[in-house]
Amino acid sequence: MSITPADGSQDPVFDLLVIGAGPTGLACAIEAQKAEFRVVLVDKGCLCNSLFHYPAHMTFFTTSELLEIGGIPFSTPNAKPTRNEALEYYRQVAAFYELDVRQYRRVERVTGADGAFAVHTADRFGRAGTLTARKLAVSIGYYDLPNMMGIPGEQLSKVHHYYNDPHPYSGLDVAVIGGKNSAAIAALELWRHGAHVTLIYRGSGIQPHVKYWIKPDIENRIKNGQITAYFNTQIIEITLMRSLSIRRRAAGVCQMISSSPSPAIIPTSTSSNGWALSAVVSTACPCATWRRWKAMCRESTWPASSWPGSGPARYLLKMGGFMVGRLPRRWPQIEGSRQDLAA
């Protein structure tokens, strides 16, 4: 991976600029580079930044074959790879293909049009830079943008929107908000490491699509009283000291429940309600992404302006860009003619 000046003064005009250096962004860049396009990737954090912020001991639900990109095998002695194995794999892939990855460059806005995009960035020290490219691919995922609950007290220091490790919560009262895979895994790990766990979910029970080896475990812990659960329940307020205000749908009344004053409230739900779904290629499977890109690059074709999309995603596509995966509503400013949006 190359290291270049923050001001981008020595940079050429790239054929393709990929915003996001996760697995999907890397896959897009690899296939474009194989087709002899000049490619650069930009990420606000490190390589595979979202994956880096996954829980330290996380194991993927999928097998390693489905995480492979660039035609390079992902070898692991385990049935399913771990977070650390995946980070090592993607580092090695990026090094093998000598990808030009500009880490710690946040994209502030995009100007220009098809054939002449200008991507304005800022590094960790606030220094501005600009990169120019004929085409764009947006592959920013959604892990770094949690759904906020929008309730009083959510900004308190004891509220975390990311779960990393159970050790700091041992002996504490912890409220886990959510009822899907992430919430169930967090609740179980916290309970097994000595936390007093309360699970709060707006649904009527643990979500039916929770993985088959996780669902009976969490349901049995709840049934045995080892984990307290409030279903059909909505959080109203989080207070500074030892309480949460909740509303239980069935009873139609409000009540207070206890939580520790230290950092111990972990909203983990990532409902799709907070996203504008404008997927051309799903971020769930990098293999599908690079196969699609491989065909595009081999044919030296780029997406037509009639491809689907909504809001900024549609505008980006109409300007000749390529959006990969889910585009969050909070997107850097994209300037240009408003009539393109209405077309």
What does this structure look like?
With 343 residues, this protein is of the alpha/beta class. The protein has two domains: 13-144 and 274-342, FAD/NAD(P)-binding domain; 167-269, FAD/NAD(P)-binding domain, CATH 3.50.50.60. Helices cover 22% and strands 24% of the residues. The chain contains eight helices and 17 strands. The strands form four sheets. Strands 1, 2, 3, 4, 5, 6, 15 and 17 form an eight-stranded mixed β-sheet that branches. A four-stranded parallel β-sheet has the order 9-8-7-13, covered by helices on one side. The chain has a three-stranded antiparallel β-sheet with strand order 10-11-12, with no helix packed on it. Helix 5 (215-223) links the parallel strand 8 (196-200) and strand 9 (228-230). The longest helix is centred in the first third of the chain and has 14 residues, at 83-96. The protein is globular and about 60 Å long. The two termini are 40 Å apart.
SSE layout and pairing:
Layout lengths: L12 E7 L3 H12 L4 E4 L6 H4 L30 H14 L4 E2 L2 E9 L2 E8 L4 E11 L34 E5 L3 H12 L3 E5 L14 H9 L4 E3 L2 E6 L5 E5 L4 E5 L7 E3 L7 E2 L9 H13 L13 H7 L3 E2 L3 E2 L4 E2 L4 H4 L1
Parallel strand pairs: 1-2, 1-6, 2-3, 4-17, 6-15, 7-8, 7-13, 8-9
Antiparallel strand pairs: 4-5, 5-6, 10-11, 11-12, 14-16
Helix pairs in contact: 1-6, 4-5
Gyration radius, in Å: 22 Å
Main sheet makeup: 8 strands, mixed
Give the rounded overall mean pLDDT.
76
Give me the secondary-structure category. alpha/beta
**CATH overall fold name of the largest domain:** FAD/NAD(P)-binding domain
Q: What is the CATH architecture annotation of the largest domain? A: 3-Layer(bba) Sandwich
Number of strands: 17
Taken together, the total number of domains comes to 2
Shape: globular
CATH superfamily of the largest domain: FAD/NAD(P)-binding domain
What is the level 1 CATH name of the largest domain?
Answer: Alpha Beta
Query: Strand percentage, roughly?
Result: 15-25%
Low-confidence stretches: 3-8, 259-263, 269-290, 296-343
Helix count equals 8
> Roughly what percent helix?
10-25%
- Series of secondary-structure elements, N-terminal to C-terminal: EHEHHEEEEEHEHEEEEEEHHEEEH
Distance between the termini: 40 Å
